[in-house]
Every structure is written in C-alpha cells, then in structure tokens.
Amino acid sequence: MHLISLPNKQLHCGNKILDLSRPQVMGILNVTPDSFSDGGKHHHIDNAIEHAEQMIRDGATIIDIGGESTRPGADAVLLDAELERVIPVVQALAKYDVVLSIDTSQPEVMQQAVQSGAHIWNDVRALSREGALEMAAHLNIPVVLMHMRGEPTTMNQLASYQHVTNEVLIELRQRIDCALQVGIKAERIIVDPGFGFAKNTVHNLQLLDELWQLHQLGYPILSALSRKRFIGAVTEQTEAMDRAVGSVAGHLLSIQQGASIVRAHDVRATVDAIRVWEAMKSWPHWE
Ligand code: 8Y4
C-alpha cells in the first residue's frame, strides 16, 4: 500500500494544467431545476457563481457543472433545458482560475460548453451516447470514463456481480478501448469506478477497499462517493447533508490508494483531510 504513488502526470486542460502528482478536489456544482425553482434565471446563475467561488476559496481546482434533468421528456426539450442551465454558468465561470468539468452525456452540450470555456468531459455514461466518442476525439479534451450498467433509472436491477472490482475493470477496459479506437488520446483519459451506479452497499465497500486495483488500467483515477447512499448506510445518516465526515473518510481512503481526483460537495473538509495526508507524506520537512 505504501508503494502506491500518484501518477507523475500533468493533465492538460486547454490553457490550464492540473498537477496529478498531488490529489485534486473537484467541487460539485448542481444547476438542475430543483436548485433554482424558487428564483428566476439570474438568481440561479448568481447562486451558482457564488457557490463556485466559495468552493474555489476552499481549495477546489476543478468545478463539476451538472445540469442533466432526470425527469422524463422529449430529447430535444431535454437538450435545450440542459444547455439553458449549463452554458450561462460556464460562460460566467470561464474567467476564473479553475478547471471546468461538465457532467453531461450529450455531445451537443459538451461542444457548446467547450466553446464557452469548459475543459473536461465528465460522463457517467462513459461516452456511450450516439456521437459522444467522436465528439470527445474531435474536442481533444480530457474525459472521465465512469463505470455504470444500464441507465440511472434501470441500473439497480443490474447490481449483480461475481466479483465487483474485476467486472468493473473489464467493463471500464471496454470503454477505454472504444475511446482509443476513435482516436481519443491516452493522456486525456481518467477512469472512475462509479460508486453508487449499479452497485449495492457491499459492492461499493469492496470497490473502495480494492480501488488501487484500478491502477492496472494505467490511467489517473477519480473517486466520487460524496454523500452517496452507501456512505449514509454505513454511518446511519439518512440526510445527505450529514454524510460529509463519512465522505471525507472515503475520499481519503481513495487518495491513500492513489486516486488523483476526488469529487466532493464538502470541499473545505476534503481539502483539510488531504492536507493532513500530504503533511504526513512529507513529515521530514516539518521539524
Ligand atoms: C447526494 C447528492 C447524494 C448527490 C448523492 C448524489 C458521479 C459523477 C455523479 C461519480 C463521476 C451523485 C456526475 C451522483 N456521480 N461523476 N456524477 N463519478 N465522475 N449523487 O461517481 O453525486 S452524480
């Protein structure tokens, strides 16, 4: 375990560079309708910017902007709604000294987001939507390939494994192969086990215990378990807000196994934990 070190890699994100030899915190910025149902459009953008600014002050070096609606509806309507939520926020945050990641599965959303200043494609569907692989190759940006089975609406029935880590490795390798085949560069790929996606509590815990196995793939690892249900199950915290400490613990265990990026709601608490880990790693310099 002590022999695992972070990849000595730099992730090129447009005009910015992320140093993956140190753990990086990706702050979660939700721009779904529920988060601005009270106010108007400007209210929603102002709130998003304020939240992002706070996360940057707290030490986030990446902001993950997500605006996908989980409600059923026509594709064209859903696309327009997602664009309307995400693009103004990207435009507003483009001037900040932070890497912008977009949580989307839609190639059109990512294309417009990149035109507006976004850097990373974070896709929980690992570029499986029509045209997504080709768009990622064309945009030539870093992509997060996350493990999932089915769709968020059907995935729970697919949470059946002989050995979860081995099957996640096999299925991630298939998505990596697809990405490489269309010309996505190896140095642009980040992998993610997809905590909570088509996994029950035991699966999630086994994956966390064996996260270091993902180094076999040869790509930087992103770990994202912030406030998720299995953290609630273990800590007996029914309210997502009360899962911060459990989430920090899980993220630190991920970092100890060589995860390069953690995706968190509670940025300051996560950064504090990482500071303790980094201080421990460099203890001779403290005397
Ligand atoms: C409270 C709030 C509790 C939100 C749970 C949640 C991942 C991801 C999500 C992930 C990557 C979520 C966008 C689910 N999960 N992207 N996105 N990896 N790369 N639920 O595990 O945060 S959304």
Number of domains: 1
Report the principal-axis shape: globular
Q: Which hetero compounds are present in the coordinates?
A: ligand 8Y4
Strand content: 5-15%
| Main sheet record | 8 strands, parallel
CATH topology: TIM Barrel
Describe the structure in your own words.
The chain has a single domain (22-276), classed as Dihydropteroate synthase-like (TIM Barrel, Alpha-Beta Barrel), CATH 3.20.20. Helix content is 40%, strand content 15%. The chain has helices spanning 41-57, 75-93, 107-115, 132-139, 164-181, 201-209, 229-235, 244-256, 267-281; strands at 10-13, 16-19, 24-30, 62-66, 99-103, 120-123, 143-146, 189-192, 222-223, 261-264. The strands form 2 sheets. It has an 8-stranded parallel beta sheet. Strands 1-2 form a two-stranded antiparallel sheet. The longest helix is centred in the first third of the chain and has 19 residues, at 75-93. It is globular, with a radius of gyration of 18 Å. The protein starts with 9 loop residues before the first strand and ends in a 6-residue tail after the last helix. The relative contact order is 0.13. Bound molecules: ligand 8Y4. Residues 66, 103, 122, 124, 144, 146, 192, 194-195, 222, 224, 227-228, 240, 263 line the site of ligand 8Y4.
